[in-house]
């Protein structure tokens, strides 16, 4: 395979795409064992298996084995080939030319081509995914001069543009399956057609999702596994027992309790890989619906934050795994700054803010509104451990400043629905950062992304014209130093407005039996394709 590298002087093009791992993968192929059935776990059925719809992490983790994007990313966030074998960026930064892989077929046997890329980026994704539509808003045109070439021309330069194209963010969908249909009602949504290394063979809701290897996968000799089965196990302790007994080969830290993770780290019996989470860089936080009653007042939101001891949360809810969040950008992605004024644990300051607002304490120390009614905040709980324990702590902490908390536990499907439709006061959430504030933080805090019914948008309804303008400015700033300065301003302004309470920058793990290899080969870990994974 010939990959172009370096500067083309005459055309003044910069070639970015390259397959850096091909030689290593070929030399190691003989050491990898073909065959084997890998079993992993999920806490609940995914909402769907089509990544073009904003269904969340449980969908993405399975869909990444079935669908692909134009590129992928290494654990140090270098772009790697996917369905595009190489790409070039013009010297003015406005034209991206992708050369597609040869010999790729959809798992129904139809040939993949540039027409699928055009359909996905021009039609399906903007219609089904608000985040994708926003990400492509600076695109002037997408064209295909031939079946193996896609040319994207921008209106203005976008510094993070390449980061939009992993399959987990911008999946390429089959034109011959979806064109001219109702995307939401298409029967293929139940039996997906992708180009990835695996294909769906059975989904028994409440029990398992089973994938088998795509025998016609374009990247030979991958995949090595014969199958991947996702067992649906709602109970965290049962998932840990299944891993310890060998009934399950792999579990992610999202599916295990923090106490089990701490125990597995010290046991030495499992492979614990902390790499592979770099693109998403998840944060645990409280999303605040700033539309609702007293939550409209930033001082009230600040008081809720001052009342929480984040060090206690890190040590006793997450067992010391992770880092205390300071704001809307995780410490593990570019443009983070700790040079901002955040919220320390200060219940006296919280009480003073409530006094300032005029929320007096009643005879039983409960804070009262202007009509003399006790104030109660409804807390929507993300299903799974440790979020139930976190909710119990929050209730006690807020009780200490006179705020009652109504804990609302729901299943994952209802959590998604209520978040997307703004049916909450405060919600425990786990949101990815997508490797750049222009993709992640912008989605959650730019007022242009307030879209009812759309998950992973600005669900809290936060609006600040200055923040919007700064996000817009940063999205076009090509100088990294200046861009960093803008994002530092954004972080301070958002933290001051307190539309969320940022708790923990999560440290995540892929936990596996020691005879399972190559699960983590890129910045997506369990959300990767697992094409090169094998069982020894």
Put the structure in a nutshell.
With about 525 residues, this protein is of the alpha+beta class. Helices cover about 25% and strands about 20% of the residues.
CATH domain topology of the largest domain: Dipeptide-binding Protein, domain 3
**Which regions contain 5 or more consecutive residues with pLDDT less than 50?**
1-30
Structural class: alpha+beta
Helix content: 25-40%
Report the total helices: 15
Largest sheet: 6 strands, antiparallel
Would you report the number of β strands?
A: 23
Q: How large a portion of the residues is in β-strands, by DSSP E?
A: 15-25%
Number of domains as seen in the coordinates: 3
Q: How many angstroms separate the termini? A: 29 Å
Rg, please?
Answer: 24 Å
Instruction: Give the CA-based shape.
Output: globular
The level 1 CATH classification of the largest domain is Alpha Beta
Please give the order of strands in the largest beta sheet. Answer: 1-2-6-7-9-8
Identify the CATH architecture of the largest domain: Roll
Annotated CATH homologous superfamily of the largest domain = Dipeptide-binding Protein, Domain 3
Mean pLDDT: 91
């Amino acid at each position: 395979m010939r990959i172009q590298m370096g500067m083309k002087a005459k055309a003044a093009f910069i070639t970015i795409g390259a397959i850096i791992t091909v030689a290593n993968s070929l030399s190691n192929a003989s050491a990898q064992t073909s065959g084997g059935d890998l079993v992993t776990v999920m806490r609940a059925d995914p909402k769907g298996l089509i990544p073009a719809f904003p269904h969340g992490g449980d969908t993405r983790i399975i869909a990444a084995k079935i669908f692909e994007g134009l590129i992928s990313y290494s654990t140090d966030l270098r772009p790697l080939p996917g369905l595009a074998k190489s790409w070039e960026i013009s010297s003015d930064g406005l034209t991206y030319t992708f050369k597609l892989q040869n010999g790729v077929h959809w798992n129904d046997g139809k040939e993949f081509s540039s027409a699928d890329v055009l359909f996905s980026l021009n039609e399906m994704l903007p219609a089904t995914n608000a985040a994708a539509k926003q990400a492509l808003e600076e695109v002037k045109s997408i064209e295909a001069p031939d079946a193996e070439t896609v040319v994207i021309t921008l209106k203005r330069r976008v510094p993070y543009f390449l980061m939009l194209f992993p399959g987990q963010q911008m999946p390429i969908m089959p034109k011959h399956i979806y064109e001219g249909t109702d995307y939401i009602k298409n029967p293929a949504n139940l039996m997906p057609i992708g180009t990835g290394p695996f294909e769906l063979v059975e989904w028994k809701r409440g029990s398992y999702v089973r994938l088998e290897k795509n025998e016609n996968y374009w990247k030979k000799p991958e995949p090595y596994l014969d199958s991947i089965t996702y067992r649906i196990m709602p109970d965290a302790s049962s998932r840990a027992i299944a891993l310890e007994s060998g009934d399950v080969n792999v579990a992610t830290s999202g599916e295990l309790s923090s106490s089990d993770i701490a125990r597995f780290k010290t046991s030495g019996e499992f492979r614990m890989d902390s790499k592979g989470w770099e693109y998403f860089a998840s944060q645990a936080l409280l999303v605040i619906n700033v539309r609702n009653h007293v939550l409209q007042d930033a001082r009230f939101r600040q008081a809720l934050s001052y009342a929480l001891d984040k060090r206690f949360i890190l040590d006793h809810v997450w067992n010391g795994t992770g880092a205390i969040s300071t704001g809307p950008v995780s410490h593990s992605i570019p443009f983070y700054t700790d040079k901002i004024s955040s919220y320390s644990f200060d219940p006296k300051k919280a009480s003073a803010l409530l006094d300032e607002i005029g929320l007096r304490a009643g005879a039983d120390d409960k804070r009262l509104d202007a009509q003399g009614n006790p104030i109660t905040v409804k807390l929507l709980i993300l299903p799974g451990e440790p979020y139930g324990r976190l909710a119990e702590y929050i209730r006690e902490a807020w009780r200490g400043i006179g705020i009652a908390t109504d804990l609302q536990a729901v299943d994952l499907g209802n959590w998604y629905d209520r978040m997307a439709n703004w049916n909450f006061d405060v919600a425990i959430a786990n949101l990815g950062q997508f490797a750049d504030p222009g993709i992640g933080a912008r989605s959650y805090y730019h007022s242009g992304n307030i879209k009812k019914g759309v998950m992973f948008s600005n669900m809290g309804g936060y609006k600040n014209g200055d923040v919007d303008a700064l996000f817009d400015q940063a999205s076009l700033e090509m100088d990294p130093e200046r861009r960093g300065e803008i994002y530092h301003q954004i972080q301070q302004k958002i933290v001051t407005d307190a539309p969320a309470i940022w708790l923990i920058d999560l440290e995540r793990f892929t936990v596996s039996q020691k005879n399972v290899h190559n699960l983590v080969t890129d910045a997506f870990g369990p959300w990767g394709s697992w094409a090169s994974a094998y069982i020894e």
